[in-house]
Structures
1.
Amino acid sequence: VWKIGWSYLRSMLLPIRNVTSLEHFFINRFGRELYHTFFESYTEKVWGRPCSEISAEWGAQRIKGLSITKAVWHALKKPFASRDVSQKGTETSLIEQFLYPKYGPGQMWEQVADEVVEMGGEVLRHQEVRRLDVAGDTIVAVEAVDAETGESHVYRPDYVFSTMPVQQLVRALSTAPPDEIRTISEGLVYRDFITVGLLVDELKVKEHSGGGSDLIRDNWVYIQESDVQVGRMQVFNNWSPYLVADRSKVWIGMEYFANEHDDLWNLSDEKMIALAGEELAKIGFIDPGTVLDATVIRMPKAYPAYFGSYDRFDDLRAWLDAFQNLLLIGRNG
């Protein structure tokens, strides 16, 4: 702790002046010792490259105003803080309570779909958009294939709201973009995501209180150890007890970050489950061989990256904004 404290003070007094990378950002904000202890390995797991090769903009976007000073001040005033769930003015990383849908965030979109149908709209599922036909500055048709039946359909939209990855969207446009725009689009980098769900009887790591030992209260546990590939662990019981069918069990999500088609991404479900079980045991949360059930979910292009051609993204955005009825939304859009 003292090493972290002195390192932080040194960074406050003698900060790196020319901040050109995420490594510099972390060291200036938290000190070199805490950077090596907490941020370095985890961040490299997420993005698949050293922090020295990632733009400082990532830190400015994701961490924003968080600092050691604010974290300490937040802890000191916590006993006297209001229980208002809105927590206005609290740094995102320091929020300790929030409203969460009973069956997870997907429940919100199920509600949206229900309301669209109630108002006379139609929700089509399993549609994979293959092509967007362009006439001048307007999207005049969207061609989609039903992933279940293989049937192709053409829709004539008034407006198109796209959450597909921008790179994929540009490839789908019938009008070829200028060479410069295509170069930017093809240079965008995405990080892919694998969640391995593991069902276990209990965790060896307990929350100790006056009434005995209980399930830890964390929603997420960040895994800094460099000798395992898992980057983060979720305890689904703590998001909502309704996410676990048998509440006497513990439902764990082991989160892995990969590049589509690399060795980790291409592991079979069986090998992925075995890896997650071994690593959960290795970091001391369960005994080996005690996984009761498991599932694997892969999500390509889950995280748009702050490197590659991202520094020229404004040019690509300006070109796409010229389409009058096209609106890009969501993390990937």
Note: The first helix runs from residue 2 to 13.
2.
Amino acid sequence: MQSRKNLSVFTVCMMTVAAVVSLRGLPMLAKEGLSMIFYILFSPVLFLLPASLVAAELGGAFSGKGGGVYTWVKEAFGSRWGFVAIWLQWIQNVVWYPTVLAFAASALAYLFMKPDLAGDGVFTGTVILVCYWGATFLTLAGSDVASSVTKYGALLGTVLPGILIIVLGLLWVDQGNPLQFLGTSGGSHAHPRLFPHITGLGSVAFLAGIILLFAGVEVQAVHANEMEDPGKQYPASMFLAAIVIFFLFLFGSLAVAAAVPAEEISLTAGLMQAFQLLLGKFHLGFLTPVVGLLLAFGSIGSVMSWISGPSRGLLETAQQGELPPVMAKVNRKGVQSTILILQAVVVSLLAGLYFFMTDVSVAFFVLSAMTATLYLVMYILMYAAAIRLRLTRPDLPRSYRIPGGTPGMCAVAGLGLAGVVFSLVVGF
């Protein structure tokens, strides 16, 4: 197997950004007007911050071992619970792949200058199959290829379009154009709402969905031992990624909300709506297809950041005897070939929903709901493991420790647990 000590802080940071940030979440936030600021400040406190801190401590403590969340939970509760944690992380992202690639399909519809294709199930399903199998074969080519595509996918397909929409939004404000988020639906001029208007469980469930936009910061922990000094570099990459994620979501969603009236924002194609409007305003409409291509590339990079993460953790469980031996098979590059092919087959079956459901948004919603529920249970195990390891193994070498000793860990992980339980309950 090739030597793999070649991942830098920046590369792992970009891989983490690719795993967490999907610009498809910006329209969902933008539809809330100024209330989005509350959601974006609330969600990192309950989710992004605790997950980043816990992942930094556990990732540094077990940086010499593969498996990520599998290793963390196994060290705390035993290999069976470790398997449950990594299986939940793996199966939830298998279900998630079609949803993020459906966003890629809507972006490609603008590349072809046919926005109506974004609602076409056959077109969407075909794009999912082609992109996912392409990402699978790139991952099978080895960690160098996978990390490069992921890094540049995050840079060119997530960070660059994110910065572009922010710059266009600032130009929109600078030229004195009307700020759409200062009005309300229907064009009236009522005072904009800073705090969400909670009208029932549906409103609370929406908040839970926003929290999940910040999930996934821990997934690249399986690559910590591919860094030169993982004990220090991995925590640094976590903190840098958390900062990038927060600012992209905050200013990106504000830019969309500034230009597009809330009632006109589409959840699936809203970002391209904003790009089309803003680029046209500044006589740059010819760049719309280019942006569509970049966003699609970013979605592929996001998928690749997940393909190689949880499946690597699942490989660790197979090598420990928790799965049939055939699942432990790797190719000459050391990549988990059997697991990746099985994963692609399952994703292909799920993509079939888009071929048979007349409403693409229904398929999108069903898959998203399945994803959220599975993922939240894994976070409960991760936070519980962090607390237990502080109590049972206080002398375990940790390159980074959450401040405040055991009470500090209990407070941070407890806050994360509160956010997860809240999301899990209202999500149903």
Note: The two ends are 45 Å apart (CA to CA).
3.
Amino acid sequence: MEQTFAIAALWFGLALVATALSARLAVSGALLEIVVGAAAGALATRFVGPDALGAKLPWVTFVSSTGAVLLTFLAGAELDPGTLRARWREVLSVGLVSFAAPFLGCAAIARFVLDWSWPASWLAGIALSTTSMAVVYAVMLETGLNKTAFGKGILGACFVTDLGTVIALGLLFAPFSWRTGVFVVACVGAFVLLPAVTPRLVNHYANRTAAFRTKWVLFILFGLGALALWAGSEAVLPAYIAGMLLSKDLAQDHQFIRRLRTLTIGFLSPFYFLRAGSLVSVPALVAAPLVFLALFGAKVGTKIFGLVPLVGVFRSRRDERWYYTLLMSTGLTFGTISALFGLTHGIVTQEQYSHLVAVVIGSAVIPTVIAGAF
């Protein structure tokens, strides 16, 4: 047990370092946690040994996954379905182009420039087509844009992009089975019942039992997450939809949302961001820096060329167009999930995985820092 407490203390020490650097450099705390995690992982591997930080321990994996799920749920809870219905053309078109342009462009670069196999190239296209809901939402919390129609539109487009990633990963590498059918049917049933059942339970128990809302939300997220993983999908996908469906009911209690954010940002998400950084193999990047530059340029370049003209149709201000585009160029959650899926299933090698994750993490940091200038 002492090892568990020691590792937890180490990780929160790293989180404190990232927070201090964030305050000094005026950069998002989530991004600094990724960078600090990468640096700590490289130093630990160099002077102590692989897995010295315990990033692959089951409980660390669970806590970090829970952080990603709750961040995604909170992002969905910030959305107003009415706003999305009113702006569905913007959300749908931007989201689809944000997925399709880098998916095809990065796959082509991996296959014809880097000479990766076709399966590895398609997986690279999937991993680099994503937009990081967790990073975008964390940044918007710090800027206050999560409460604006502009920010909600970006979050909606992020969801469409990541939905395309999940579908592509399932079609190409995880064939649909009867479990997929059970998952879809169960989710549809849950999503139909949630808006009707939740207000009744909350009104009846919330003022009688401590933290009923929190326990109810965690029950829903863990249940749907377990079902998603059982079916070969990812736990963060139903979390976003659940948050969106419950946004109207949860928004009535601002104190509850603040407490849930404190739990997520203060305890859970640091594990997720630090762990994502620690999984990068720095020696593999140093050995082949041109591979990183080619993939990073393909991801960000295809996003920019695909989105800037399209976003200009809906946003006339230059600063808004570039801020929108750059945030849509970020990647982390589904990108690392897709890359890890490829590694565990033998689709990509350890070196290819390291380059993909490094590009995903680089796209989480660099475009977001530049976007702050707009």
Note: The two ends are 47 Å apart (CA to CA).
4.
Amino acid sequence: PILPLSEILVALGQIIDLHVLLARHGWVAGDFYDGCLMYDFAAREIRFMDLECYRRGPYRNEVGRLPGSTRFMAPEEFTRGALIDGRTTVFNLGRMLAICTDRHALPGGLAALITQATAPDPAVRIQSPADLQARWRDAVA
């Protein structure tokens, strides 16, 4: 079933909250995509799994294409030598926001937030999961 936007936004907020907590402890997302999530429709709860590819960061991409679902991956996850950091996590989260809300009219500045979170150039992206969280809360308030 398709959830109402209000429920989707609550679940997405929980996903962002988790990544803020992980970032505080030095973790950078790796192989984060919709398959890492399970939504319990009866309980209206999101569950997280398959976070084993998360790494302490920042770090350099030493292999070129990193593991992951292409539609969620930041450009630096394809580039040997690129810096993988909180801005990479922001891109991954931005793609999740875009994909999960694509059938809905977005409130306030949410579309602009998603655009900035998924900017190809990390320098112009929202700079950290915590910054994304603050802007997210303003956009959905």
Note: DSSP finds four helices and six strands in the chain.
